[in-house]
Each structure stands twice: as structure tokens, then as C-alpha cells.
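At this stage, I wrote out one protein's amino acid sequence and its C-alpha cells, and that material follows here:
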Amino acid sequence: MAITPLDIANMALGVLDEAPIDSLDQDVKAARLLNLHFDLTREAELTKHAWVFAILAASVAGADTGSGAGTLNFVYELPVDCLRPLPLTHNGEPDGVPISWRQEAGLIYCDQPGPRLIRYIANLTDPNDWDALFSEVLVAALAIKIAHPLTHKTGMIDIARGAYDRALDAAFSANAIQRGGRLSTSSWAVQRGDNRFVR
């Protein structure tokens, strides 16, 4: 069954026990709030974790920077749909030997010549491309964002946060998010110092 951004928005309203809307462009407060937060929240939730469904790979040619500094002399342009790259390895596979790299804006610098296989989290905008568990997380994340301005009830924020935590736990339990071991380092959240989801 096809799902639309409106369906996601109305599920978020359902978490808050609010009436559904007819359109994200509807001139009502709920629609205005959801329209304001939808895209940014989707990108943020995709970026926070290595969602398996959103991992794509691209072979990029790269170029020698000619700096002669001896480290990170090769530069690669990230794909236009890249929200964030995953850790680089010699063979491009998640269980490969890590290589030194850094990101600056839309570029990757590393110490290995190209072409290089870069795995990354893609900015997937169509709900029909999403894992159902990601949809549940996004629904709850949207509910958190709009809970107070829409309902003015502090308790609704707690309800939405509870839904978010349960949805994220379900995603980790179902291995919908790549983590640890042979698949990856511990996720973007951990690299930022957020250890809540390390298991």
C-alpha cells in the first residue's frame, strides 16, 4: 500500500490524539507545524543512525590534491543525495580495513587514491522507499516537535517521547539500523558522544 507524507503527518497527529488534516498545505495550525518540521525532521532522523534501507554506495573517482603533505592527499566529491558518509575502508565494505579520512562540506579527504567506493546515508524523500520502522520513528519524532506548540500540554511531549523510544528500540531489535561488529562502527550518535543506543 502506498504511503504519503500526509499519512505520516496524520499518524503523528494520532500519537497526540489530534484530528487528522486533509493536506500539509491546509491553513490550520497542525498542518502549518507539520509542514514546517517535516523535511528537516526526516533528514535529521535519517542522519542520526545508519538505517539499512538508506545506505547506498557510489564509486567516486577522486583527485590528488597535490599538497604533498603525506596524509589525506586525495579528495572525493560526495554524491548529491548524501546526508553523511559512513566510515571509509580499503575495499569500501563495512567489514573492511578502516582508512584515514575527514569530511569538509561535500568533500571527503583520505590517504588512498581512487576510484573509491563510498557508502553513505542517502536523503530518501519518498515514504515508499522507507523501512516501516523508520516511518514509526519519524512519526514519533514529528509528534515530539509539534506536541507543545499544538496541544500546550506538557504530558503530550512525554507521550511522544515514549513512542519515539519504543520505535527506536524496535528498529534496533529488528536490525533495521546498522551497528557495531562487522557492519560498522557504533553509529553517528556515538561518534557525537551519545551512547544511549549502544547495546
